[in-house]
């Protein structure tokens, strides 16, 4: 909403109301009627402003100057104070800070993010997370979703196919559920986020959307970082 424009339209209506009162007091009937016609035109944007701010704003059946003046004052007050009221009365919500994401994610995204290339920043972060995963399990032959599926697989490691394992008792259902969940989420991150970004134009990606996508890769990066590497025993 254009605050300055709205306030100017309210000021126009206020000025006409003052002029109508003055003409009435001076018994200038012709001038008063002319000003009242101007007021009806001036009230068109004012009514739209009221509709934008309120549901069922109480416009008087007969638009007398006495009835209109306090309503216009109410609209002005709503416009002037609305942003501060929202800011100070809305529930406090946590703020998502990109520089607190896992270093692999933010280091990959930082330069592109600073230049306003949000989608490219997410893609760069995904590529760096993939590279770090390749380094950790010593794989260059596969990448992205396929690499995540093999790295987090519950199956035993094989020669040239190491696994990532969370700390904890691997015999429990909780551990297995976490391992399987990491497999699914990491695969999904690369399949549903990284791949589309690499093949579509997302130059107009909103900051909030980009932050949420970076957060997904930050979770994946922390899991990769947290896990230990399990390799096949020599001779298996």
From TrEMBL:
Sequence ranges assigned to domain Conserved hypothetical protein CHP02391 in this UniProt record: 100-224
Descriptive protein name: Conserved hypothetical protein CHP02391 domain-containing protein
Superkingdom to which the source organism belongs: Bacteria
Pfam families in alphabetical order: Hypoth_Ymh
InterPro entries cross-referenced by the UniProt entry: CHP02391 (IPR012654)
